[in-house]
Design goal:
Rossmann fold, six-stranded mixed beta sheet, single chain, 2 domains, 50% helix, alpha/beta
Length: 327
Amino acid sequence: MTNAIECKNVSIRYITGDFKDIGFKEYVMRKLTGNYQVREFWADKNIDFTLQKGDMLGIIGANGAGKSTLLKAISGVMVPTEGTIKTRGNIAALLELTAGFDGDLTVRENTYLRGAMLGYTREFMDNMYESIINFAELDKFQDRPFNQLSSGMRSRLAFSIACLVNPDILILDEVLSVGDSSFRKKSGDRMRQILSGGVTGILVSHSTSQIKELCNKVLWLDHGNQIVFSEDVDLYCNAYEEFQATKHLPVDKEDAERMSESYLDRQQTEQAEKAKKQLKKLEKNLDVEKSEELVREAERIIRKYNPELLAETMNKDTAPEAGEGFV
């Protein structure tokens, strides 16, 4: 199968304190006085992975791990200091949702402007325009200036343009959390539809549940270092959640498995405690009033946190008495 993205030993360095930051005059003065210093910061170091067409990569890591910097390099916004990045096909990248829009232009004008920036023709955008606006739920705001939209509406438009056009590679940096719950569901459904069509995707998200649901590969970064690149998405997402609590990085797969088990055990304990508190509160209310609404709420809690108990109870209720048979 054809590789869509090849990232080979990529390192990205930022330099602070050089003459571009301090100005030429200050640079000369510091050089003359022997006070000129340059500091290096490696945002990413020796990142190595390959994605095939149709893969969806989830990138996890704490703030400052180097996730967004890596996406900029893959998108072509930055050039790696070391290593190489090869991509095949046109790229639609949502790195900063509202970047590239003009606040004084209308929603309609900005839609065509963003499409042109992505390399699409006027004819193509004419055909896609109505679908983009409808998906973003902005049909009543087409002739409004962009700067009059709320941040959620701006984000919806940016996501709609990126996803309703025709990219070969789609790069998303924390954008599936935009809008209200109904739009988040719709955007998630759209992502699944895109991926089923063979588009290669990269998603940066702090939501491991989102990564588990949408991605078939995971890349874990920490302070610019690659912890792991794997197809075992559930394992390393669980290990990452445990890392969030303990700050312990896995040294190998066996260690990651232990961390994953610890996380799942802790989740089960926390859910049991939460259910116990909710049921105790409901029990007090049922002592006062046995309404149908309260009974249904108790059933909902049991169904969510202990479905086995509910199934066992229903089986007892429907089982025939001794000596009886089913008709």
